[in-house]
Amino acid sequence: MASPSLSVPYAILPSIQQTHLIDDDDDPLTVDRSIFSLLEKKLYEWKNILKGHVGAWCVGSSHGWIILLDQNGVPLLLNSSSSTTINVPPLPLSFLHPVTYSYFAEYLRKTFIVKAIMMCSSSPSSYILAIIYGSNYKIAYCNSATWVELSDDKQSYCDIVFSNNYLYALTQDGSVEVWNICGQIPKRLILLTPTVEANYKEEKPYLGDNFSRNLYLVVSEKEILLVTRFIGNFDKKWKKMRSLHDKVLFLGANESV
């Protein structure tokens, strides 16, 4: 979860005062969490994190906001500092096709949205929420009132970020689309295709025999980075790497920074 004013994210952890494991769906009013500030190296207790949102499921975090789906699968935004909530319009039934709302809420709610991020705004009520969703990894956004689908049936996506009021979308083949979604009609402005081919013969001795790759888009100061993360059965030995100087990348299912 990234702070709106800092480039260093917060980490949400189980509460240090919580002595037993519970299912968030069973007793959400008693769920406490600790927020760890990497910059300050301090823990803050967040009591009753889901109070008033029985059964809510977290699908992402962005700029100090936690993005949830309630028990009926309707999105809502929860501010980690003020506990302010913003109701988001329900996902259109066309996004869920061919299933019904009830089937989605009961069986697909926790897996349907792959990633969810927000565009920063001086007014929380004028938010833009973007998601990657469904088994085909499509992208869509909500501009405070209406959901709009951007992708077609032929394209799948693996990551999205906002920068300078544009939406950058990373496709499964490594191409990057740049969208202007601030106007009445969304427009794809740029399509960037990969220009560097990976040398797997050089990578394999370093990575071991079994690995997979995940691709991420990361906003770093004035640049957009395309980052490859290797996941697999490594040889468990320290390897020399090039310095990131005073920068650190945080990669994952939430917004990468």
UniProtKB/TrEMBL annotation:
Protein name: KIB1-4 beta-propeller domain-containing protein
Protein's organism: Arachis hypogaea (Peanut)
Pfam families: Beta-prop_KIB1-4
Ranges of residues in domain KIB1-4 beta-propeller: 36-257
